[in-house]
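Annotated sample (chain length 398).
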Amino acid sequence: MNAEIIAIGSELLLGATVDTNSAYLARHLAAAGINLYRKAVVGDNTERIAAMVREALERVDLVICTGGLGPTVDDVTREGVALALGRELEFHEALLEQIAARFAAMNRTMSPSNRQQAYLPAGARAIENPRGTAPAFLVEDARGTVIVLPGVPHEMRYLFEHAVLPYLRNERGISSVILVKTLHAVGLGESVIGEMVADLMQAENPTLGISAKQARYELRIGARAESQAEAEALVAQAEATIRERLGSNLIGDEPLAAQVVRMLAEQQQTLTIYEGTLMAPIYRALSATPNGLAHVRGVLIHPLDRPTDEHAAASLALAGAISAADRWRSDLGLAVQASSTSDERGFTAVSVALCTPTGMRQATRKYDLNQPEGWEFVGTLALDLLHEYLNPNTTASM
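Output written by the structure step:
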């Protein structure tokens, strides 16, 4: 079965509300072995909703809509779906009684406008909503099935788990599994990684995709099978191949910061941070990770007080790592220092240095620090240097 998700609501298009429903549905459809072709967002407009549902049914046999089932004049999902399927809306007295009972249970007076929630496209199957006043519904058509759920997240999740999944399994025979595993890599560019695993990225099952996030790379393996065990075997086979090709640049299924924090704990190492900038990229990266500062003894923030070139920045990073480690008597000192000037392309040289009981390690790279993610790249560079030291098997190129 192939599916599309349509999130309905003008507030989603305006950015006033974040569409978390589609992400939830995407994860659970994958777990149920259903291929998701597309996700889309449309405003509260009958004709546009109808057009989007029609287009989706030309590609897939399952369309799941969320939102637009309320009692106000802009809640037109029912009308849009009915128009897409060429059906009239029919009034259901039993649904109105359920809605009224819901209001009575909440000790509230039902508004006359709630009556519109008792209308469904002709032939639709109502899905009772014990968590809210908006009944959901599904319509089976020659082109496919359209399922419409409320936009309120907790109502949508409840109905998907307690009504939609049982329907898909018991009546549509969905029994396969899609398993996704994410691996993390550092030390190589996205294009280099892509070339090393190009053949895996072209395979149909399992699939492999790569995404880049501030010099950290996620490799997502997806496998479809008739059982969990078969899917796990396919993922394991792909993972083994990736590990063989990427070697120590593949750091595993933990994000870089989380892995560094875990390794500090396991090795009982303490860390002190020297930040030569108010942007404090190392501190920010670790503080965004659970227990990220548990083994950090101190943080010294010392912005530049005079112009500094690339060579001087490297020296300051080394001195900063040593002085920070000595000041707090920590096992390790990790420092970052950027030069005060940029080259003709707008790139700034940044040095990171690590003071260890056995010596010093250092790396220098150039980044566009005018970009919002520029300092996040610096944080990754510093943590990669620390990871290289904590993991003796790592030979990642800095």
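Annotation: DSSP finds 13 helices and 17 strands in the chain.
Annotation: The chain has three domains: 2-170, 178-252, 256-390.
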